[in-house]
Amino acid sequence: MSDRILVIEDEEIVRGLIVEVLEDAGFEVVAAERAEGGLEMLSRSPISLVVSDIVMPGLTGLDLLARVRATHPSLPVVLVTGAGTYGNLTQALANGASGIVVKPFSHADLVAAVRSALGRARAAENDLRDRIVTPTVAAALANAIEARDVATHGHCERLAELALRIAEELELSPDDCETVRLGAVLHDVGKIAIPDRILLKPGPLLPEERALIQTHPVVGDRLLEPLAPLEEVRAAVRHHHERWDGAGYPDRLEGEAIPRTARIISVADAIEAMSATRPYRGPLDPERIVAELETGRGTQWDPVPVDVALGLVHSGALAFPEGGLTLAAPPAAESNGAYSVLLVEDDADHAHLVAETIRRALDGAHVVHASHVAQAERLLADCSWSLAVLDHRLPDGNGLDLLRTVKSADPDVPVLVMTGEGSERLAVDAFRLGASDYVVKGENSMTELQARVRALLEAA
Ligand SMILES: [Fe+2]
To answer: Sign of dihedral through CA atoms 417, 422, 423, 424?
Structure first.
């Protein structure tokens, strides 16, 4: 959006000239003949900067400056003055004018004064936001939300940590990451307006109570309205209950029409809620959380942040101990050269054993575990792998079919097949489909696995 400038000048020719120069410089310009009319316009529509003459009938430019300071303290005002009225200059600057242009002025002088005043105003606004307003307001509001309901203590903080991590994994810009973090902290701020008897009601809600609770995203959006620097955050707050399939609220937005920040917060919010203890239930099992995410992927939630979250679960970075979710720090830059191994195995205990063996064999390799063919296929589409270790029998498919998928995603990746039944036939089939090696699950299989994994990657 271009900056909108209000020009106040009583002389028609000069007014026309100023408007023309600023429009040529790319600004949107509105004009008034008198200060009174200018103040009226200011109260009606958003203005980024005022350019005003000083000597005018009625209110002077200096009177105008004083009034603008009182009503719009951060709005920059550039004054235009005739030569010989330097007495005005000192007073104007003392009263907070952002720039002075002396008549007769060149086009370049005027545009430079306007640009510089806008730049300083923006820098001051950002500074204020970064240092004082945003952290203070966000922290105060977050405390206010949590103070209402002890059961959700720590919810905002854990949710914000997870949402930020997803945003970072998706390589959002630093500004967007900050919007996600603040949006996560403030997402339920509108619940301040919901009465305790409904917000804290232990039993099921009546339809009218549910409808009232569902006003909280819009109330939150309105609560944050006076905080101009939080404009992007407001969108995240307003839309955190929209659904990817368009069946959410308040605006029934669908798919990518939902702000990306809100889509990320929505996934993180659900994961945090499922993994937290509530007075009426304990945390859900990690398997159940994964299953819920898989079910809602592409209907309730944007598949992209869901896959990031599933990747974090499978890699062990996101865990669900009692007391709420925990996030391990992202892998350090220097470990990027380490091997990444995709392990597909449905038996959780065996998977744990194999993952440990691989990590030992490959000196801290990054092992990502999938328990289903569907998960493995997504991981294959999203990342490249140094090695794939596949179980033969999987709940939703066959290890040999998955082997085909692995080889079509990357023909060069070595694949090791594991099976409980060491039939020759299976070994032949696996080799024919491009497997590099084969381990039979059994007494010494971990020692064998360790040696073979090492040999495979040395050969690769
Ligand atoms: Fe909410």
So the answer is: positive
Ligand 1 centroid to Cα of residue 192, in Å, is 11
Together in a domain, 183 and 320 = yes
Q: Give the pLDDT confidence score for residue 334 in this predicted structure.
A: 43
User: Does 127 fall in a domain?
Assistant: no
Question: Could you tell me if 219 and 77 lie in one domain?
Answer: no
Q: Report the separation in Å between the CA atom of 377 and the middle of ligand 1, taken as the mean of its atom positions.
A: 32
Check whether residue 106 and residue 226 sit in a common domain. no
Question: What is the mean pLDDT for each group of 10 consecutive residues in the chain (460 residues)?
Answer: 89 93 95 95 92 91 91 89 67 79 85 90 75 71 74 80 94 87 91 86 87 94 83 94 97 97 97 85 89 96 96 90 80 58 85 84 81 82 85 86 89 86 72 84 80 83
Q: How many angstroms separate the alpha carbon of residue 287 from the centre of ligand 1? A: 24
How many angstroms is it from 190 CA to the middle of ligand 1? 8
Q: Structural domain of residue 234, as residue ranges? A: 153-327
181 and 298: one domain? yes
CA-based nearest residue to 83, from 103, 63, 98: 103
Residue 263 lies in a domain: yes
Residues 185 and 282 in one domain: yes
Contacting residues for 352 by C-beta, under 8 A, at least 6 apart? none
* CA 184 – ligand 1 centroid, Å: 10
Would residue 396 count as lying in a domain?
Answer: yes
Query: Ligand 1 centroid vs 132 CA: distance in angstroms?
Result: 26
Strand partners, 344: 370, 390
Q: How far is the CA of 187 from the centre of ligand 1 (A)?
A: 6
Separation of CA 352 and ligand 1 centre (Å): 36
What is the CA(173)–ligand 1 centre distance, in A? 25
DSSP states along 64-122: HHHHHHHH-TT--EEEEEETT-HHHHHHHHHTT-SEEEEES--HHHHHHHHHHHHHHHH
- The Cα 319–Cα 301 span in angstroms is 20
- Show which of 281, 296, 327 is a domain's final residue: 327
Residue 379: CB atoms within 10 A of its CB come to 22
Would 31 be classed as within a structural domain?
A: yes
Task: Give the total number of structural domains in the chain.
Answer: 3
The last residue of one of the domains, among 284, 305, 327, is 327
286 and 214 both lie in a single domain: yes
Give 86 Cα–ligand 1 centroid separation in angstroms.
57
Contact status, residue 124 vs residue 96, Cβ threshold 8 Å: no
- Number of other residues whose CB lies within 10 A of the CB of residue 371: 21
Three-class HEC string of 272-318: HHHHCCECCECCCCHHHHHHHHHHHECCCECHHHHHHHHHHHHCCCE
**CA 348/CA 198 separation, integer angstroms:** 41
